[in-house]
Amino acid sequence: MSTLTILQTTIFKRSPLQSAQLPDADKATVMAGVNFELSAYKLEQGHLKITLKNPKDWIGGRNTWYVFATHVKVVEPQGATLAVSAKQRASGVKLAVPFFSQVDNKFEPMRTCNTSSCAMAAKFLGAKISGDDEYYRHVIKYGDTTDHNAQTSALEDVGIISIWHTDLGFDDLDKSLELGLPVVIGILHRGSLENPTGGHMVVVIGKNSIGGNYVVNDPYGSLLDPKGAYTGDVSNGNGAVYPRQVLARRWLMDGAATGWGRLFVKPVKG
Fold this sequence. Notes:
By secondary structure, the chain is of the alpha+beta class. Helices cover about 20% and strands about 30% of the residues. The strands form four sheets. Strands 9, 10, 11, 14, 15, 16 and 17 form a seven-stranded antiparallel β-sheet that branches. A six-stranded antiparallel β-sheet has the order 6-5-4-1-7-8, with no helix packed on it.
């Protein structure tokens, strides 16, 4: 039997959203030091999804809740402990974001990295789209595929709220991944690290626990392909690992908080 210990006063929630986004009926405050017996639990989007075992512990007649994983500790019967810190989660995570290649797009395959990247993130977040070709039809209603405002409007069309930024850094990537949200970023994908050029969009979907390197879905292939940048199979961009020092030069080329990127807030439709 697993035991859940509340490490700090926290909020139990009916879904893994920020508590401010939920009605009062879908959240409950639980004080530090309280223990619960669990019949099941699993990590999900930076939270633990828990099922309370004893009916006397159920809150509002409900036994299934979400709680921030950093606020609790689970102890297994054999004494094994699951205590997940924000740093641990952000430093070793890979979101199950689908991979869409831009090179097979029906329209503008050589310049739709932004559309393919946003479509990957949107599909992961619950948008009812079949892929990037379908999503492209939303984009062109508002402007060019390279237009970030057009992408914002297209994402809203398919039920996703996002905000385009030009002042992001590695902390923003880590915080978003901790919440279970991917990030679309703009990199200079051509030239050397000393003199990067170009302009390209990829999706940050995770971070390795060793070295702090980031996992991306790159719709054009792999910048670090052993055969040479983007000369291998495009599928090599599916879960490609881009070292932190590479992104420091190709994403944050103008300083620590100068990264271009799109942060996702939440789905707005069911």
